[in-house]
Amino acid sequence: MSLKEKISEELLLEEEVVTQNEIVLYNDDVNTFDHVIDTLIYACDHTAEQAEQCSLIVHYNGKCTVKTGEFDDLKPRCSMLLEAGLSAEIV
């Protein structure tokens, strides 16, 4: 095995592990569909279609993962959801 092949093989074995967190949105009896949809568009950068689908999933299943990513990106987004009166948490 040549030195070039050995170095290439070592590089292929290195892998960065990134922890993915999720914002989970929970159903409530207070907020309207329009408010939830508008808030998801604003806080999570959803399209109108994505936000509508998530609002329906939350309504029928009781909860839905609305955003995944690194904790530092999700924390301010979850705070926006909470400030808008929605029930959400980062898991």
Characterise this structure:
- Helix content is 55%, strand content 19%.
- With 91 residues, the chain is an alpha+beta fold.
- The protein has a domain of 60 residues.
- The chain has a 3-stranded antiparallel sheet.
- Helix 2 packs across helix 3 and helix 2 runs antiparallel to helix 4.
- It starts with a helix and ends with a strand.
- The mean pLDDT is 90.
- This is ATP-dependent Clp protease adaptor ClpS.
- Keywords: Hydrolase, Protease.
- One of its GO terms (molecular function) is peptidase activity.
Structural Rg: 19 Å
Helix/strand order, N-terminal first = HEHHEHE
Shape, principal axes of CA atoms? elongated
Oligomer: single chain
Structural class: alpha+beta
Percent in strands? 15-25%
* Sequence stretches where pLDDT stays below 50 over 5 or more residues: none
Q: Portion of residues in helices?
A: 40-55%
Protein name: ATP-dependent Clp protease adaptor ClpS
InterPro entries: ClpS_core, Ribosomal_bL12_C/ClpS-like
Keywords: Hydrolase, Protease
Domain Adaptor protein ClpS core: 22-83
Topology:
Layout: H1 3-13, E1 21-26, H2 33-44, H3 48-61, E2 63-69, H4 71-83, E3 87-90
Antiparallel strand pairs: 1-2, 1-3
Helix pairs in contact: 2-3, 2-4
List its traits.
peptidase activity, 91 residues, 4 helices, three-stranded antiparallel beta sheet, Ribosomal_bL12_C/ClpS-like, protease, 3 strands, alpha+beta, hydrolase
